[in-house]
UniProtKB/TrEMBL annotation:
One of its GO terms (cellular component) is cytoplasm. The lineage of its organism: Eukaryota, Metazoa, Ecdysozoa, Arthropoda, Crustacea. InterPro entries: GTPase_HflX (IPR016496), GTPase_HflX_N (IPR025121), GTPase_HflX_N_sf (IPR042108). The gene is gtpbp6. This is Putative GTP-binding protein 6. Signal peptide: none annotated. Residues 57-144 form the GTPase HflX N-terminal domain.
Amino acid sequence: MDVLTNPYFESIRGDSRIFGFFESEARESKGIGTLVLQPWVKWGANKRTDTSRQLLLDEAVALVNTLPGVEVVAKEIVPVKSMDKKFIFGSGTVERLVSQVRASHHISCIFINVEMLKRGQIVALEEAFGRKVLDRYSVVLGIFRHHAQTKEARLQIALAELPYIRGEKNWRHRRAPNAIEAVLARD
């Protein structure tokens, strides 16, 4: 049986977690209001010296604006101690950002400009914000999905989404309370 006609792969294509979000949100509103967050390591071995934080933020905004029906409504550079932490942001920063997002009716989605967030980070941040949280990997997949014209191209996108789908299913079994939930429980 050809991979393109295999029902297993067809169901994966129909189970898109990434671009399906963009399509449904765009239908419900004039566009998807997105908050772009650029984490910036302030000091230490992980601090980037090859570029500026403003250039990274500008690149992130341009990347998000490539998606059809998506509009950047807010952007911010967020200082962090380390990108290797279990959670990217500290509890005070999370509280401030959650308040900002909840106060705005225009923000439907948060884009954090890192290569790939861990599944635990995505789940914790989505629960905290009450909004979809995306990283560069998911946005780039969304862009590719939008431009995919052939069955082969759509299949490759579906295969590239497998780590997300697999990670989501594994995470549900291992999920435990986290620091962000503890911070939000105080409200």
